[in-house]
């Protein structure tokens, strides 16, 4: 797997330092609120696990699988819910944890849905923000790193189901996904 990486953007140590900073900021911002922290599967699972371990406040967790990518590298524009929440968001302070925000389509659709379900507040926390690709106006409240328009994998993010278990975030070599 490591041979398929063109360049490491963020090491495991870089990520853990940023996760600690974000977790402490989130804990302060959500003090006394018992937020519902929603992990967007599958890419954000490692990030969310590390974030909540750095939030020393009461919170609840739930999981949602929502996608606009399928197995490709470019958003299809069609947002689909593959697994919905088990919890109600009505009157809850919701924190959406995402691995990467690029076009904003998925998070715009999800935010609109949670508003319809009467969430008290909705905030977004992402490890990576790729503003160059944004096509939907989405406010990202907490950002770990801003990245260039490159296809990244590792720390939960994949290409065709692979590379999620890399402990760092790296740029995938173009020949890996252009030849498939």
From TrEMBL:
Residues 13-159 form the Phosphoribosyltransferase domain. Signal peptide: none annotated. Keywords: Cytoplasm, Glycosyltransferase, Magnesium, Metal-binding, Nucleotide-binding, Purine salvage, Transferase. One of its GO terms (cellular component) is cytosol. Its cofactor is Mg(2+). It comes from the Bacteria. GO terms for biological process: GMP salvage; guanine salvage; hypoxanthine metabolic process; IMP salvage; purine ribonucleoside salvage. Pfam families: Pribosyltran (PF00156). It catalyses: GMP + diphosphate = guanine + 5-phospho-alpha-D-ribose 1-diphosphate; IMP + diphosphate = hypoxanthine + 5-phospho-alpha-D-ribose 1-diphosphate. It is found in: Cytoplasm. Its main location: cytoplasm. GO terms for molecular function: guanine phosphoribosyltransferase activity; hypoxanthine phosphoribosyltransferase activity; magnesium ion binding; nucleotide binding. Its EC number is 2.4.2.8. Pathway: Purine metabolism; IMP biosynthesis via salvage pathway; IMP from hypoxanthine: step 1/1; Purine metabolism; GMP biosynthesis via salvage pathway; GMP from guanine: step 1/1. Gene3D superfamilies: 3.40.50.2020. Purine salvage pathway enzyme that catalyzes the transfer of the ribosyl-5-phosphate group from 5-phospho-alpha-D-ribose 1-diphosphate (PRPP) to the N9 position of the 6-oxopurines hypoxanthine and guanine to form the corresponding ribonucleotides IMP (inosine 5'-monophosphate) and GMP (guanosine 5'-monophosphate), with the release of PPi. Belongs to the purine/pyrimidine phosphoribosyltransferase family. This is Hypoxanthine phosphoribosyltransferase.
């Amino acid at each position: 797997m490591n041979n398929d990486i063109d360049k490491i953007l963020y090491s495991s140590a870089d990520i853990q330092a940023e996760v600690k900073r974000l977790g402490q900021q989130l804990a302060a911002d959500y003090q006394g609120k018992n937020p519902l922290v929603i992990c967007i599967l599958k890419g954000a699972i490692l990030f969310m696990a590390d974030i909540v371990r750095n939030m020393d406040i009461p919170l609840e967790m739930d999981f949602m699988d929502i996608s606009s990518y399928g197995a490709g590298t470019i958003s299809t524009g069609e947002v689909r819910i593959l697994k919905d929440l088990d919890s109600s968001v009505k009157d809850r302070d919701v924190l959406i944890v995402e691995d990467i925000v690029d076009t904003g389509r998925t998070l715009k659709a999800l935010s609109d849905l949670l508003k319809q379900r009467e969430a008290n507040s909705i905030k977004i926390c992402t490890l990576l923000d790729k503003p160059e690709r944004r096509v939907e106006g989405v406010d990202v409240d907490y950002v770990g790193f801003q990245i260039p328009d490159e296809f990244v994998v590792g720390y939960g993010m994949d290409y065709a189901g692979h590379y999620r278990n890399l402990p760092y975030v790296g740029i995938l070599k173009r020949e890996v996904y252009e030849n498939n």
